[in-house]
Amino acid sequence: MILLEVVTAISLILAVGGLTASIYFYVKDRTAKRVLIKREQDVSRRMFELAILKELGDRIGYSLDVQQIVDVITGSLHQFIDYSAVSYMLLGPEKVIFKMHLERSVHQRFVNDIKDRMLGSLSALLDREITKKDVKDVISGAIIVEELDEPVRSFFNIPLVIDEKVVGVLTVADTKSGLYKEEEMTILYKIIQQASKAVTSLQGVVKAEQAKVNAMVESMADGVVMTDTDYRILVANPSVHAIIGKTNKTDLTIFDFIDNLEGKFDIRGKLEESVKLNKPFKSEEVLIRDSFYKIFVFPVNANTGEGEEKNVVGGVVIFHDVTAERSIEQIREQFTSMIVHELRTPLSGINKISELLRAGAEKIAKKDYDEYVHMISADSSSMLELVNDILDVAKLEAGKFDVRKEPNDVRALVQNRYDFFKPSADDAKLMFHAVYDKQLPKEVSLDQAAIKQVMNNLISNAIKFTKADGTVEIIVAKHVKGARVADEFATIPAKASIPLPEDAFVDAPDSLLVAVSDTGPGISTAGIKELFTKFKQLDTKSETGLKGTGLGLAIVKGVIEEHGGTIGVVSEIGVGSVFYFVIPLEKASVTSAP
Amino acid sequence: MKKVLIIDDDVTFQLTMANKLKEGGYATVAALDGEAGLEQVKAEKPDLILLDVNMPKLDGIGFLKKLQEAYAGEKQIPVYITSNLSAIDKISEGVSLGIKGYILKSDESLDTILSGVDSTLNPRPTEYELPEAPAA
Question: Is A375 near chain B, with CB under 8 Å?
């Protein structure tokens, strides 16, 4: 039942997780989405482990009851052997259990005599003194009668050995003499031996399971701590030590937890509640030492068998680290607020202008009027651009970005973009060139509109980040499989501000290679990592004063990948950056220009 | 004529707001970022500041901090934060830095903002005055 609840709780967690994933469509590029999916799978796998763990914990919750087994043996012994009394002494957790079953009534002295003899032999076997005060008595069967003062005349003692350790002794005794001959003794030995073997192998199973559980708990990334009903710590894995900052302390107590959780999570209260109500508990996010955790508390039951009431023997507390999920959530929020801001700004601008225009055209100075019209146009275009970008990203991530490849004159396409950007490059006082490889096929199969968008993005970035007197160069080349890009560039001739990494082209087939080189400020290694994700510009915006949603490069990457190509960047602080992409040439189009 | 400084990198807001304030009888000066804003404060000594949050170079909160440092002990210039972001944390940070108010640009008309400026710079006399005690 509890297991069922745990499973339900887990499926709930997974269901919520799935929902969150689906609304993340615009959060990350597809690589990051894969990471997210993988994380979720990890969580679900761990939750599954947890379910197994709990089941095993429940099974191990009850130790193998040797006494029960011995009871079964002694209960059926009289079929084989005759005796007045059968008794055993077993080492219990606190006391030695002495249990005697009388087949026939005997005198109290008979009982005392056997007890003394058994104490003697147990002490001898264990090599330590066991006295009457260590023993708890249970007498059953026939009654003790004072008139029948018969002494012990036959007596036979067998040590109970489990897993090569003496755990007790079993004794048969009678008031008649000469009862236990070799035959009876053999039978008894055999029975005891069989039982001992069975118990030993059962204990082996339990130990193996325990080891499995321990190994699993030890290696779990989640912090796991198990306590008994008195909050004594039974299990605490390395992760939980780290969480409460007690890596080197071996014997943790509940107070280590209470002190180090600093009142952020009432571990004892929740354990008490969970154990008392026999119900699992799940916390909200709790901040412990710079990390966020969801904390789960489960009661641990000893399975006492079908239909019987469950016996709660303790509780398990699991600390599940949700810091990574949380930071994704934060990025998502930042991104949303950025989009909201970028959409609201032009919209509220248009709104304000219309408020002023309502005064009537005749009341507005011609100069202001012209400026308003110009601003409406600029505001609406920037909004349109953003909306288009958002839609493109959404399409790319939904896998619905259609790339319509057609044979295109790539040289004409790039030249068209060059001509388009030439005036802004001139305004920025830049050297601006486009160079073309003669080996380039006349036509390359690609989506004209999409590649135009890519070129717009790369060229406008290069111009934006390069200071006056710097150089922006567009290089359009054919890369031949196995050739060195540096050699290929030399024959054009072309020179990028930073040499392209030859390693990246080792496995590339014959391809179209386009590079946009600039002599801008360069990008740090850390910056390059984040470049193609959607948030890139968020950080740089305030420093450079350049606006942008940072969606551009994410779209560029998506478009190139949809073409079956790859995109990359090399950069050096203070020297410049080169963005390049390769698109494999399709067989039909691998014909050199005449 | 009282002078309002608009610090905003959104040129549309800058122009439309300035025109509206002129209608309302104010002089205006403008800056595109926090740094330029500080220079304008020094040069123009405005009576009120409309301050954007998200700006290049020095953002709104950074501007407020520097303003406090530079003019500690002097009479504070009333500052309204104007933004298109309903960022609670920015507002509360602004409040802790002593801002006069917060205006969500996209939600408020130019008229409303103007009346906010009016109420701060030209407060009307209290409408209810205690009746004078009748002469005995």
Answer: yes
Q: Which of A48-62, A71-85, A411-425 has the lowest mean pLDDT?
A: A48-62
> Which of A347, A378, A541 lies nearest to residue B106, judging by beta carbons?
A347
- Which DSSP string corresponds to A377-434? HHHHHHHHHHHHHHHHHHHHHTT------EEE-HHHHHHHHHHHHHHHHHHTT-EEEE
How would residue A21 be classed by pLDDT, with cut points 50, 70 and 90? very low
Identify the top-confidence range among A139-153, A224-238, A525-539, B10-24: B10-24
- A356: contact with B, CB 8 A cutoff: yes
B12 neighbourhood in chain A, CB within 8 Å: 346, 349-350, 352-353, 375, 378-379
ipTM for the predicted complex: 0.71
On whether any CB of chain A is under 8 Å from the CB of B35, the answer is no
B22 to chain A, closest Cα gap in Å: 12
Cα distance between residue A452 and residue A417, in whole Å:
7
**Long-range contact pairs involving A565-573 (C-beta distance under 8 Å, separation at least 24):** A565/A511, A566/A504, A567/A532, A568/A500, A568/A501, A568/A504, A569/A523, A569/A528, A569/A531, A570/A496, A570/A498, A570/A499, A570/A500, A570/A501, A571/A498, A571/A522, A571/A523, A571/A528, A572/A498, A572/A522, A573/A521, A573/A522, A573/A523, A573/A524
Q: Is A337 on the interface with B (CB under 8 A)?
A: yes
Query: What is the pTM for the complete model shown?
Result: 0.49
| Both tokens assigned to A325 | 């999920």
Interface membership of A544 toward B (CB under 8 Å): yes
* Separation between Cα atoms, residue A333 and residue B136, nearest integer Å: 68
Q: Is A538 exposed, middle or buried (0-12, 13-18, 19+ CB in 10 A)?
A: middle
Q: Are A108 and A88 in contact (CB under 8 A)?
A: no
Q: Does B8 reach chain A within 8 Å, measured CB to CB?
A: no
Strand B27-31 and strand A576-584: the pairing is: unpaired
DSSP β-bridge partners for residue B81: B51, B102
DSSP string, A251-291: S--HHHHHHHTTTSS-HHHHHHHHHHHT--EEEEEEEETTE
Rounded-to-integer distance, Cα A408 and Cα A447, Å: 8
**Best residue of B50, B106, B115 to probe chain A, by most A CBs closer than 10 Å:** B106
How many Å apart are CA A45 and CA A49, to the nearest integer?
A: 6
